[in-house]
Amino acid sequence: MSQIRLIEVESYEEMSRLAAETIAAQIREKPDGVLGLATGSSPIGTYDLLADACAKGELDFSGIRTVNLDEYCGLAPDNPFGYRYFMNEHLFDRVNIDKANTFVPSGTAQDMDAEAAAYEARIDAMGGIDLQLLGIGHNGHIGFNEPAEGFAPNTHVVELAARTREANAKFFEKPEDMPKYAITMGVGTILRARRILLLGGPDKAEIMERAAHGPVHPSVPASALQLHPDVTFLLCRQPPRAK
Ligand code: F6R
């Protein structure tokens, strides 16, 4: 029996408000805690609200540590299409976090397998993830864990699925710049987080339903979340309002 709470809300704004409240409560409860963070369009509104709360002095990130899910291979931290850059722009540069306590896997390490092992060890050394924020791909991917033969236990390097490359190529100036490989937390890494919050828009309704209530199978990586005791899916019925 799936224990996943699937909560539907009307708007992207409402989803962002609920997600930001959950993260803010986690920060207040454990000011030196570890947040697992995601990039993509789903969490942008949440990060905006967290940044606003911090600017108003309502939230203190000074002791918070973060680990991101993933990064494209080959993209340096200052590459505007990379995930370190995204996180700086949408959250880290806007709150009073110590950047030295923010971790995104390196996409340019000499030895990517060693980087993956070191990233996993770092999460353990930090005491594990208190709250992991996720988005979901149309194919059920979480992080860059694509449909596969099995659930990956740890941080690793992956070849991106054709559909994911198509979906993400629009973010690159030239579609051919879209990387072929990424480094990502494994499904196992994600499942070791103490709490999980997944966000999705209306185009994800079907895959969120399958992930929450369909068979647990690596052909839908997010279905593994059914094995975790504390997972909430927030699904919004409308995309963000155009600004
Ligand atoms: C991002 C990530 C991806 C996205 C997913 C959904 O760090 O790991 O799994 O969460 O592709 O992306 P959006 O939110 O753009 O629909």
- What's the helix-strand series? EHEHEEHEHEEHEHEHE
What is the count of helical runs?
7
Please provide the count of β strands: 10
Report low-confidence residues grouped into runs of 5 or more: none
Q: How are the strands ordered across the major sheet?
A: 1-10-9-6-2-3-5
Shape: globular
Largest pleated sheet: 7 strands, parallel
Task: Explain the overall architecture.
The protein has 243 residues and is of the alpha/beta class. It has 7 helices and 10 strands. The protein has helices at residues 12-29, 44-55, 83-90, 112-125, 162-169, 187-191, 205-213, and strands at 5-9, 34-37, 65-68, 70-72, 102-103, 131-134, 156-159, 181-184, 196-200, 231-236. A 7-stranded parallel beta sheet has the order 1-10-9-6-2-3-5, sandwiched between helices. Strand 2 (34-37), helix 2 (44-55) and strand 3 (65-68) form a beta-alpha-beta unit. The radius of gyration is 17 Å and the shape is globular. The termini are far apart.
Please name the defining characteristics of this protein.
single chain, about 240 residues, alpha/beta, 7-stranded parallel beta sheet, 3-stranded antiparallel beta sheet, globular, binds fructose -6-phosphate
Task: Set down the secondary structure blueprint.
Layout (H helix, E strand, L loop, with lengths): L4 E5 L2 H18 L4 E4 L6 H12 L9 E4 L1 E3 L10 H8 L11 E2 L8 H14 L5 E4 L21 E4 L2 H8 L11 E4 L2 H5 L4 E5 L4 H9 L17 E6 L7
Bound molecules: fructose -6-phosphate (F6R).
Short note summarizing the structure:
With 243 residues, the chain is an alpha/beta fold.
